[in-house]
Structures are given as C-alpha cells and as structure tokens.
Amino acid sequence: MPGIPNLSLVEGAFEELALELANYLDGLKGEGSNVASDITPSLADAEKAEGKETDKDAVLKKLIIASSVLNSAPERELQAAYNLLIHLISQAEEPEMYLRPVCKNLSSPITSSPHNGTGIALGILSTLFNTIQPDEDTRYHVLLPIIELVKTSGRNGNYANLAPQLANLDSWLEEWEMEPEESRKLYLALSQAAGSASRGEDSYIYLLKALRTLQEQPASPEARDLSLRALKTALQNEKHFDFQDLTALDSIQALRKSDEAWGELLEVYSSQLYEDLQEFKEGNPSFISSNNLNEDILDRKMRLLTLASLASQSADTRTLPYSRISKALNIPSGDVEMWVIDCIRSGLVEGRLSQQKQEFLIHRCTHRAFGEKQWREVASRLETWRSSLVNVLNVIRAQKEEYIREKEAELAGPEVRSGQNYRPDRRQRNALEVD
User: Fold this and answer.
1) Taking the model in full, what pTM does it have?
2) Phi and psi of 83, rounded to 5°?
3) I want to staple 36 with a disulfide (CB 3.0 to 4.6 A). Which of 22, 255, 328, 338 is the partner?
4) CA pair distance 22, 62, nearest whole angstrom
5) What is the tens place of the pLDDT at every residue in 19-62?
6) Where is this region: Disordered (predicted)?
7) pLDDT tens digit string along 128-155?
C-alpha cells in the first residue's frame, strides 16, 4: 500500500494531490475501490485540454465520501493523510461544507490505533482549528467535536490541555455571532467534559453559562431543567459555597414558583442556618432521598455556612465562643476546633483558635449575602482607610517641609557664620575650648 509523506505542509497542484489521495484511499478500501477512477473525469489535464478547469467540488465530494476509511489507516500515516485532505479542502470556494464530515470522521473511533486514536484525532482537529481564520464561525464546528472527544475520553490530561485554550471562549462566540442555542450546546458539552475529568467547579461554571443563554425565556421547560441541574450541582459540590450566582438568575426566580421546595432549599443555603435545614427536612421528609441528594454533603456544607454566618454576625467583637458554635452547628464541644479548621480550609473564614479562652478570634469572614448592610460596612471601612491615608499624607508633607528647611539652613550656613548671629556647633565649641 503506498504511503503518504508525513508532512504538515503539502506542496503540489490540486489535481496531482487529489489523485494521490484517491489512490491512497483505494489502497485502504481494497480491491473493487474506484475512488481514483471516479475523480479522474473531473480533473483537468493541462496537456490534453487547454483551458479546462478542475471541478474541485465534484472531486472533493467523492474524496469526502471515501475519507471515512482513513480511520483505519496505519497510525504513522494517519495524520499526514488527514493533512492532505484538509489541504485540498482549503482550496475550495466554500471549505466549511466539507469540514463537518471530516470532523465527524475524527469523532469516530480510530480503529488502527485504539490507545492513541483520541490523541491523534485531537491533534488533527487542533491543527484544523488553528488554520481557520479567528473570526470565521467554522471554528465553532471544529471546536465542538474537540470538546466531544475530550468528554468521551474522560481523561483529565486531555481536559487539562484544552482548558487554558478556552480563556477567550466568550469573545469567540460573540465574534462568531453564534445563536443562543449554539452557545448553549457548546457550554453544555464543556460542562460534561469538565465533569468527566472530575473538574466539578469548571463543570458548574459552564453549566451556569449555558443557563444564562435562557434568561429571555426563564419559565421554559428547558430553563427549568437546567436550573434544577445547576442547583443540584451547586448543592452537591463540596467546594461550592456561593449561591448568589444562582439567586441572581431569572430562571431560578421562576423555579421558586414552579418548584417551591427547591426554592425553599436554595433560600436555606443562601442565607439561613443549620437549624433551618433541619426544619426543611422535617417538613419535606422524603425530598432529599427522592432527588438523589447526598445528605452528608448537605449537612457538612450547611454547618460550614452556618459558621461563616456566625463569624460575620460577630464582626464587631471579632470573637466567637466555642459554646455558641457548638450549639448552632449541633455538634459536641470537643468537635468545635475541627469544624473551625475545616471552615478555614474552605476559605470561608480566617482567624485563630484560643483554647485558653475557648474562643475563635476572627480575622476575616465571608458574607453569604451582600446587601445594604454590607455595603454600609464597606463604605465605613473605606472612609476609615481614606482618613488614615490623609493622616499619613500630612505626616509625609510635614517631614518633607522640615527636610527642605534643614537643607536651606545648611546651604545658608557660611553666610550665617559671617554675620553677628553665628554660633558654633557643639564640636566646634569643644575644639575652641581645647585650644
């Protein structure tokens, strides 16, 4: 079977390269394949028919139809073969119509390389993505199969390589002028890819982005389903404690009316305490189990959030007695320090434990809800900070003026000594007395 040189940059006329690829495809397909003979009538022969132009679309259609066999090509030839096909497609007037079947082929299993096939396909698709102009929406149709491959592989390494490249994803979608449905499809695929790679927080972030594309129709069935999914994800993520991102969405507000129990549970985690969660359980005894929620995770998260609330309520005294923590979290007094340490590790509070005083000394705390009271506190602290800066500036200004006066006096020293008010300094007086 003839091979194709492993070159990323392909040189040669379209007719020559198309025939070369057709012969290669015939070799892969085996006896009875006639790709080369099918495209030959559409190829221009400069020696026999001057002025005849190659019907590139007719050639490419036949090559694309036969290209699915490339997934069975030897691993060492696979990338070069796809590079050649992509090079031929790039010479068409409307290349995007041929790229989608190629992406579909690359999304299918590469039978010649079960172990490395995903990596090879991702490499080819990444090359294809980077050859397309940044402002062309064709990039969207290449990026989507890349994400699908990453999701299917479930490998953390593949997602880790992809994640840094997505920093400009929102601006890309805007530049490509994608419809909300298309953006949502991409965000949901990314959410699933991140989830399969055990990146829970990334998965939640992309899920929220998908949900935001539905804010113009917040009461739609799709908005409700995604809102419930986002809420469940936030509740079950052990490292997610901020629910303000959810409560700000119109679809979540609509959920409060359509699914009151879910709205009540969200309110508990947004601003209430551990005892309120217990009341919710008593009023809805089968809710947690029927919705497949992990009760241990819910209890632990609520205790940590309650401790954060206690700390913010004690901002004036900056101290929180162990006894109050024990009562609010419904835990033995001997477990208080363990829970405070967990809360510090979660980033909700900062401070120091005092075993002697049986107190938690608060240095910093996270406000679960940021309203008018918190804004007044921020304004007060900014005013204090401004006053401190003014005092520091006054001190610096006074020091500067004093320094200038001393320098002026030093420069004027010889003239002063020549006048009748001249007085020698201490060392000069000592020298005079010795003399």
Assistant:
1) 0.76
2) -60, -40
3) 22
4) 9
5) 999 999 999 998 888 899 989 888 865 444 455 677 889 999 99
6) 414-435
7) 898 888 888 999 999 999 999 999 887 7
Residue 377 pLDDT exceeds 70: no
Write down the residue that tokens 């259609």 correspond to: 61
Phi, psi angle pair for 356, to nearest 5°: -65, -45
158's tokens = 């593949």
Residue 432 predicted with pLDDT over 60: no
Assign 3-class secondary structure to the chain.
CCCCCCCCCCCCCHHHHHHHHHHHHHHHHCCCCCHHHHHHHHCCCCCCCCCCCCCHHHHHHHHHHHHHHHHHCCHHHHHHHHHHHHHHHCCCCCCHHHHHHHHHHHHCCCCCCCCCHHHHHHHHHHHHHHHCCCCCCHHHHHHHHHHHHHHHHCCHHHHHHHHHHHCCHHHHHHHCCCCHHHHHHHHHHHHHHHHHCCCHHHHHHHHHHHHHCCCCCCCCHHHHHHHHHHHHHHHHCCCCCCCHHHHCCHHHHHHHHHCHHHHHHHHHHHHCCHHHHHHHHHHCCCHHHHCCCCHHHHHHHHHHHHHHHHHHHCCCCCEEEHHHHHHHHCCCHHHHHHHHHHHHHCCCEEEEEECCCCEEEEEEECCCCCCHHHHHHHHHHHHHHHHHHHHHHHHHHHHHHHHHHHHHHHHCHHHHHHCCCCCCCHHHHHHHHHC
- Residue 115 pLDDT level (bands cut at 50, 70, 90): confident
Beta partners for residue 350, in sequence order: 364
Half-sphere exposure of 245 (CA within 13 A, CB side): 16
**Strands 359-365 and 349-354: what pairing?**
antiparallel
pLDDT of residue 12: 81
Question: Which of 103, 92, 12, 95 is closest to 55 using CA atoms?
Answer: 92
Distance CA 76, CA 13 (A): 24
For the four alpha carbons of 50, 52, 56 and 58, in that order, the dihedral sign comes to negative
* Cα 9 from Cα 323, distance rounded (Å): 72
Single out the residue of 324, 312, 328 nearest to residue 378, CA to CA. 312
What integer pLDDT is reported at residue 122 of this predicted model?
Answer: 92
Band of the pLDDT at 241, cuts 50, 70, 90?
very high
Q: What distance in Å separates the CA atoms of residue 35 and residue 63, rounded to the nearest whole number?
A: 7
Six-digit token string for 110? 């590469």
Q: What is the CATH number of domain 293-368?
A: 1.10.10.10
